[in-house]
Specification:
429 residues, alpha+beta, 7-stranded antiparallel beta sheet, 5-stranded mixed beta sheet, 44% helix, globular, binds zinc ion
């Protein structure tokens, strides 16, 4: 099985190299903004659309006269920035289409200019990229020292591109590698339903619990204090600069803690190291519209914290690489209102109720565990007929409930309506 994988690690740059990297990142940002302005102007004037190729030709002419400083950086940096611009527009047009069909509730997001204030940014290079034990060799930049030895793949690997980026004063390099991995052995374990939560990160139907790390809450408490301090400091003063860097570092730390927790949870669920008999044959997630949920301001921060998008992205590729199926339940499937033992559907199940008590069979069970079990059962129900997906089973369950006159319109976080916008990478399972 051929996969594309990214490896990211920290660089140890000297002053000269740092300046050179800053120039590249600056050129990439400048080109992106220049291209965006050109595309806007051309469209408003004549209605024509300039592609990355048109813009690159134009830029190469201007280099000689207007932007001679661009010769100091690799030609890849502006070239790839224009490709990014093309992708930004492609994403924008895709969302416009979705909006027209009513599948998108969120913002359409016209491409925006990149601001220096939002950080140094990054640049991407292609061409001859070589990885050695302790350093990486990039076009124009030469050999750059790595902080960690032996993490980046060396030897006979096909490197597609390399991206250098800056975050909170630290520099990183990532390489995109095309790899051949052995086809995964089919898994035979029980299917696992995963209920993504707010108070806890994830609850699995097999009883496994993944909590949000404590360090995350601590860092967030600190983060609430610092902007107040910043606003009391003199503009453009030295101390204000210090506070701003502190805030950037804290944001970075929070992102790292969150990513680490998500990776641990998704890896734990997929259970790569266990024998195939103990690994889940399928992972069932709720197909939630994260965009729609973010509009609810009470829940917004908590949801973005949990990083549901990132969880889905990780679990999707990890199941694919390790031989499990991935299924998404219909957003209307009453996973938190349905009894996982007898199948009775409750009329109401407010978020504040942490325990599910069934009036039919008397089952008393943790709310999240009940939801996760319902999701896992969705896979079993979809089994006999291969053409039936988990989604359609969920829809059938909903129709059945409606037939009994039950109002199961989603009104809590477990089942907010609206379809997730189709995302090929998430659905290609
Ligand atoms: Zn029951």
């Amino acid at each position: 099985m051929k996969i594309i994988r990214g490896y990211k690690t920290e660089l140890e740059l000297n002053n000269r190299q740092r300046t050179h990297c800053l120039k590249h990142a600056g050129a990439a940002r400048f080109t992106f903004n220049w291209g965006l302005a050109r595309r806007k102007a051309a469209y408003e004037a004549t209605g024509q659309t300039l592609t990355a190729i048109d813009l690159h030709k134009e830029l190469n002419r201007l280099k000689k006269t207007d932007y001679p400083w661009m010769y100091e950086v690799s030609k890849c940096a502006p070239q790839e920035a224009l490709r990014d611009l093309d992708r930004a527009f492609a994403n924008f047009f895709r969302r416009v289409k979705l909006k027209k069909t009513g599948k998108l509730r969120g913002k359409i997001g016209y491409p925006r200019f990149k601001s220096k204030r939002r950080g140094v940014g990054s640049f991407r290079l292609t061409g001859v990229i070589r990885v050695f034990d302790g350093h990486i060799q990039l076009p124009r930049l030469g050999r750059l020292k790595l902080k960690e030895r032996g993490y980046l793949p060396t030897g006979e690997v096909h490197i597609l591109s390399s991206t250098v980026s800056e975050k909170a004063g630290r520099w990183f390099v990532s390489v995109q590698v095309e790899e051949e991995i052995p086809d995964p052995e089919p898994t035979q374990g029980e299917p696992v339903g995963v209920d993504l939560g707010i108070s806890r990160l994830a609850m699995c139907s097999d009883g496994a619990v993944y909590e949000n790390p404590k360090a995350l809450h601590q860092a967030q408490r600190k983060l609430r204090r610092l902007p107040r301090q910043l606003s009391r400091q003199q503009p453009s003063s030295r101390n204000r600069g210090k506070t701003r860097r502190k805030i950037a570092r804290l944001h970075f730390r929070i992102a790292n803690i969150r990513r680490d927790a998500l990776h641990k949870a998704t890896s734990g669920i997929v259970a790569k190291t266990k024998p195939p008999a103990l690994r889940p044959c399928a992972v069932v997630l709720e197909d939630l519209n994260v965009n729609g949920m973010l509009k609810n301001r009470h829940l917004a921060r908590a949801i973005s914290d949990v990083g549901m998008h990132e969880f889905r992205r990780q679990i999707t590729y990890k199941t694919q690489w390790n031989g499990s199926d991935i299924l998404f339940a219909d957003p209307w499937y009453p996973s938190s209102k349905r009894c996982s033992q007898c199948g009775q559907v409750k009329r109401k199940m407010p978020l504040s109720e942490r325990t599910y008590r069934c009036e039919g069979c008397g089952l008393v069970i943790d709310r999240d565990l009940n939801a996760a079990s319902n999701l896992a059962q969705l896979h079993l129900e979809s089994k006999p007929n291969n053409s039936t997906t988990a989604s359609s089973v969920g829809r059938a369950a909903q129709d059945a409930a409606n037939a009994c006159g039950e109002d199961i319109r989603p009104n809590d976080i477990g089942q907010i309506s609206q379809k997730q916008e189709p995302n090929s990478s998430l659905r290609s399972a």
